[in-house]
Amino acid sequence: xxxxxxxxxxxxxxxxxxxxxxxxxxxxxxxxxxxxxxxxxxxxxxxxxxxxxxxxxxxxxxxxxxxxxxxxxxxxxxxxxxxxxxxxxxxxxxxxxxxxxxxxxxxxxxxxxxxxxxxxxxxxxxxxxxxxxxxxxxxxxxxxxxxxxxxxxxxxxxxxxxxxxxxxxxxx
Amino acid sequence: xxxxxxxxxxxxxxxxxxxxxxxxxxxxxxxxxxxxxxxxxxxxxxxxxxxxxxxxxxxxxxxxxxxxxxxxxxxxxxxxxxxxxxxxxxxxxxxxxxxxxxxxxxxxxxxxxxxxxxxxxxxxxxxxxxxxxxxxxxxxxxxxxxxxxxxxxxxxxxxxxxxxxxxxxxxxxxxxxxxxxxxxxxxxxxxxxxxxxxxxxxxxxxxxxxxxxxxxxxxxxxxxxxxxxxxxxxxxxxxxxxxxxxxxxxxxxxxxxxxxxxxxxxxxxxxxxxxxxxxxxxxxxxxxxxxxxxxxxxxxxxxxxxxxxxxxxxxxxxxxxxxxxxxxxxxxxxxxxxxxxxxxxxxxxxxxxxxxxxxxxxxxxxxxxxxxxxxxxxxxxxxxxxxx
Lengths: 172, 388
Description:
The structure holds two protein chains of two kinds. By secondary structure, chain A is mostly beta strands. Chain A has helices spanning 15-19, 40-50, and strands spanning 54-58, 65-66, 72-73, 78-79, 83-86, 89-100, 106-118, 126-130, 145-150, 163-168.
C-alpha cells in the first residue's frame, strides 16, 4: 500500500454469520457428478492394476520408461513405442504425514503419503501413493525400500487403490 | 527492450486482504481498480484494454468468473480477457498486460487480480481437490497440502535444511506485514511458535502456511508516451517471463523449480540482467508456504541452490539486508487471495521503486525489483522485472 493512500476498502464479516444467515447471504450446493473415460494409455494402467501389475510406456527416442503410461511422449512429442510392466517395488523419494483430510478437517491417525520411484522405470519416475504397515511415522526414511501391497484379486476394481499401500521391504 | 513499445506501471491499488469480506468479488475488483485509476490520474474511459486474473472458479462457485468480474474491472465494452495459471496467475496477469501494450495494440491497460476464497465451505481446500488427475491421483484422497509437504520435505532432504531455518521466513514475513495497512496476518512470532504450531502435514505446520483470503489488487499500465505525460516517476516493466512444466509432477525432482528458473531466465534476458543477486535490489517472491520463499529464491537464481536458508539466517533477506525479500509481508503476512496476492506483489515492487512504501520502504533506494508467482501442480512460474 502506498503511503499516499489513506483509505483501505473492505469490511470483514464472520464466516459463520454468512453460512448461518445472520447476515444477508445466499447459499447453493451443486449436485453434479462426473464419469471419466480413462483414455488410451491409462486403460492399460487400469487393466494392469486388476492383474496386480503396474504398466508403463516406453519411448525409443529418449529411452524413457514412463509411469504412468502415456500414449505420447511429452519430451519427444511423438507416439510412445509400446507398453511394458515395471516392478511393484521401489524407493521412497519423498514423504509426508497428513493430519488433514481433503476438506481440511483434522484426523487422528495420520495418512502416510509418499512419492515412490519404481524399480524398472526410468530414474525419477515416481508415483504418488500411501504407505502402510508402519507403526510410527518416524520410522520412514528417504531411500527406504518399499513394495506394493495389493488388494485380493476379487476385490480389485481397476483403480489406483487396487494397491492398498506400499509397505517397507523387511530384510530377511 | 523487446516489443514495439516500452511499458510502464503508473498506478496501483488494493483492498484489505481478509477472510470473509462483505464485498462481492465484483465490488472488490471495482475498489482496487478505482484506486489504481485515481493514483494514475486516469478515468476508466482512458483505459483501452483490461486483463483480469482470477484463480479456480470453484472458489466463487461462478463458472465464468472472468465474465462475472468484468464490470468490476471497468471492462464494459472493452477488449478484455481473463487469464488463469493457478497460483501463478497474479504475476502472469501483469505479464499479459505487458504484451497488450508492448505489441503496439494499446496505450493503456488495467490489470486486476481478484479472489474471494471464503465463499466456499467447509473449506476452500476441498475445491482444490478437483485440480488433481481424476484417474491417477484423486482416488487416493490427495489434497493440496500433501503435495506441498512432499515438495518441502524433498527440498529439506536434498540440502539438509532444518525446519527452524525455514521457520525464519514465516517470522520475517509476518513481522514485515505489521507495517502493511491491508495485511491479514501481521504478527510478531518466534521460530518456536512456528515449530510448536499444529502439525498439518509433516513437515508443514500451521504457521508455515498462508491463510484463506479475499481481496483484490490492480495496476495501471501505459505506453512510454502516455506514461511520461502522466507522471514524472513511472516504473518500467523491463522483463517478463513465464514457463510451465509437465503435470506429471511425481516424475521430476521436486527439490528445485526448474520452470521458475526458465521463467526468470526469460525475464532476465529481456531486462539485460546477468547477475541477479547483484542487480536485483528487492524481490517479492511467492510465499504461500515459508519454504516456498527459499525454494523460489533459488529458482530465481538470487542465490545458489541450497543457499537461501543461509542468507535468511544471516539476515540478508530482511528489509535492511542486502537482498530484501518480501518487504510487503508476502502471502504469509498480507494474505493469500491467490490472483490478487500475485498482483499485490507487483504493487509492492511499484511502491518500493517509487519510494512510496511508507514504513515498509527499503532505505537503500531500490532501483530494480522483481515479483514472482507460482502455481498449478507445482509446475508454473511467472516473473516480472521492474525498474524505476
